[in-house]
Amino acid sequence: YLIIPGYNNVCFCVCISQDVGLTLTIPVISAGSFGLSCDYKEKLTRLLPPARKISNFFVHFWNETWSGLKTHWSTAYVYKQPDISEECFWYINALEAATAQFSSQIYRKVLRSKEEISPVLSDPNRISNRMGGHYELDENGDRDTNFSVMFTTGTHQYKTLFEFDTSNNKTQLNHNNPDLPWRGSRLPDDKPANGLQTHDIIVIVLAISVVLVTAVALLFYRQNRKQRFNQKKWSHINPDLIIPVDYRETNLISLKRCFHLSVLLIFFPLFPSLQPVILKELRQTDGNFSDDQRIELNSLLRVDYYNLTKFYGTVKYEYGVYGVFEYCERGSLRYVLNDKISYPDESFMDLEFKISVMYDIAKGMSYLHSSNIEMHGRLKSTNCVVDNRMVVKITDFGCNTILTPGKDLWTAPEHMRVEGFSQKGDVYSFAVIAQEIILRECPFYTENCSDLAEKLYKVQCPSGPTIFRPYLNFETAGEQELYVLIKSCWDEDPEKRPDFKKIESTLGKIFSNLHNQANASYMDNLIRRLQMYSRNLEHLVEERTALYKAERDRADQLNFMLLPGPVVRSLKETGRVEPELFDEVTIYFSDIVGFTTICHHSTPMEVVDMLNDMYKNFDSILDNHDVYKVETIGDAYMVASGLPRRNGNRHAVDISLMALDILEFMGTFQLKHLPGIPLWIRIGVHSGPCAAGVVGNKMPRYCLFGDTVNTASRMESTGLPLRIHVSQSTISILQRTDCQFEFEKRGETYLKGKGKEMTYWLKGITGQKYNLPTPPTA
Asked: What region holds the Guanylate cyclase domain (predicted)?
């Protein structure tokens, strides 16, 4: 290249190419000057025609171009690029020897051969001052360049200290006393002030590095050793810190039926607020864990994930060792799937919600497989629990060195044949749970097989090319994609089953596709589901309220049958009943004559049927009178009137009328298992003061106390079959009423604890006919 400076610093570039020839480009570029090499290249001859064209070009260029853009020819110099050979520069440098003649007369002589170039190159008097600085050519044509040593003065200026003339091989000193910025204007020592050599510093640095590396390694070793030591340490939770839930505080949390018989709901007061947790019995250990078991338990303590229940430790009681886990209020996933009233398919558990449940399980298992726990081993729907936000969490994981695996419907076929745990086995268990979620049927539901042992055998020992798996059927395209995923998860070959990372990704795509297919947004779907769930809750509340009212009425009716009405109302309002004293009541007693003999000739069920038939008819008779049935003890039947509601003198009348009705009924009663054999009863009636109150908290009874009760019992025991034995006090009350009762004096009768008393036989009422049975004569 030749660069020609022009007017206003505009430069022109002429490119010499070996193949193309002469071309002209007009970029504005920088320039430099270069020397010659002493070696002559054979390629130089191929550059002569282009060089000759250069001469013709410049002659024409200087004659025709605007004078304002031209400068003196002597200002043209050579520009070199690193990727272009140097042969052309040798030639141009030689051509420059006659610069003055060429610029003044536009000298057109062209050097054509080596003989013409060599004398020019070997001229020792050639001197050049270009942008590269002053240089001279030696006898070999090499460039001798001078060198300068610069220094910075105290005023921060650059000056030349000395110059070295390469051609003359001598040094010219420009400053004898330079103002150097060094202390005392003296050259600094080549050694540090402390006398350390470079190799000393290297040794010191290496020594310090070795010490630091050793210290860090020792620190890491001690930390690792301490960590392993801590992993082998384990202490049980103090049982005193675990407080069972008080039934009076059950409104604080939602109580569900526990899904393990060995689980107990408790409060764990190691937190600012009482934390509900749940206990899982560890039956295969006595609490003295091995080193491996302690390491595994410490790993469980560090597990903290949204879809995994928190493990708090173990507690040891005299009756066993328990693991302490986080409690989820809604119970197990199996419980939620079975409760189709609280969680209906139409308004709550649609396909979108079911996929989100499976997605929660997949996320929890994906995290578990990537943690130190590595696998579950006992994954099933009863080990998936639901919290109050409907988030599914996995529990009962880990402890694989403590808990032994079992064979159930969720166990993978390979683990049924050879006991063990694996991640692929967890994938199989997930597929069975997914089938439960989709169909909301029993675990491993099939249409043609319902026996548990048969299902386990068919899974463990498949016959033929087809494998035995649960029933599964889908209709829509989105469901079909889920169908393919579930089938791949319970594949017979464990290696063909996907891992939980892929399952999580696939479920996420299916969930997104369901949203994309719907016209509504995610928030619209969420609001729609909440509205449907709210309406369902309203219907559920109404239904449950109606059931509650029916049960309450049934319970009240049962309470009114067991206890008097005022007593029931007092118990409901205040929780207790004050004992009460009654001035005058009438008490009825009856029992079966020869009851022991009848029982001897009857079976227990026949005796029960006999008493049930007889007492049901007695109870229906009581409904027609103002009386209260106190109790039945075996064949004894006790009734009172005048309590708990006082009725004046009517208590004796009502008891007497009731006794006549009962005696009339006994005239028609026949034993089913002993036809033709009559059934006789004795009846005793007595009136007097009495105390009454409720006794006991469990199965409370309204009991009567006082001498009147004992006397009425003696009246019954001293009476005769098919007769109503009445005391003098009762007859006196009846005589004060308007009722004309017919009675017969029996005479003085000895009553135990009372002596002789005048007693009577009640016969009936004047003007009313009773078909009373005829009493036996002997």
From this structure: 586-716
